[in-house]
């Protein structure tokens, strides 16, 4: 689907969601919001955007008297364009919009609107990021640090909080990485350890996996 078609579909869904929110507010009743079309990044099996609760959606800002879009509306359209291509984290968007000169108040309102209609969802973003990093062979510790840098608590992300990711499961993943991409160095154990640390595995996991790998693959 071409970008213009994706944007048109996305805008239609956002308009429908916001219209539904206004109708609920005017009728004295609130209703849960269906998420907007999810951004294209990495597909998740059975993934649905999280329900944002029973929040009433405010009307989008109107254009000024000269017909130009308000700064809040321009900020929202920027978020929309970015989300058309891949999932976005709210703090990363906030930083980007601020660097591009948008006022803080306009950024706050645009992000709030994007979250209300499901265009931006940090939980959904985190799950996509975690699955992507795990597929790349990254370690749990490194992934958690990346999420923390975006203001997201790794403990609330299912693939990371799952007990199978601890200890034995993490060692198995580290070993798998070493088998797929064996280090080439004179001191094989040290090279294996360094590679795992660089990939975000905790030191104790890296030590154990490097030892097991060397035992399984004597030089």
From TrEMBL:
Residues 121-157 form the RecX second three-helical domain. InterPro entries: RecX_HTH_2nd, Regulatory_RecX, WH-like_DNA-bd_sf. One of its GO terms (cellular component) is cytoplasm. Its main location: cytoplasm. Gene3D superfamilies: Winged helix-like DNA-binding domain superfamily/Winged helix DNA-binding domain (1.10.10.10). Residues 16-73 are annotated as: Disordered. Coiled coil: none annotated. Belongs to the RecX family. Keywords: Cytoplasm. It holds the Pfam family RecX_HTH2. This is Regulatory protein RecX. It is found in: Cytoplasm. Transmembrane segments: none annotated. GO terms for biological process: regulation of DNA repair. The keyword DNA-binding does not apply. The keyword Cytoplasm applies.
